[in-house]
Amino acid sequence: MRNLRLLVILIIVLIAVSFVQREGLSNKQIQPAPTPIQSGPTPTPIPTPIPTLVPSTSIPIPSSQRNMSSFAYPGSIILNQSEKEMTLQSLDDPTSITNWYKEKIVNLNMNAKSFVQINTNGNILNKLVAAKSGFKISVEISKKNNEGKTEISVIYS
Question: Which range marks the domain in which residue 113 is found?
Answer without folding.
Answer: 63-156
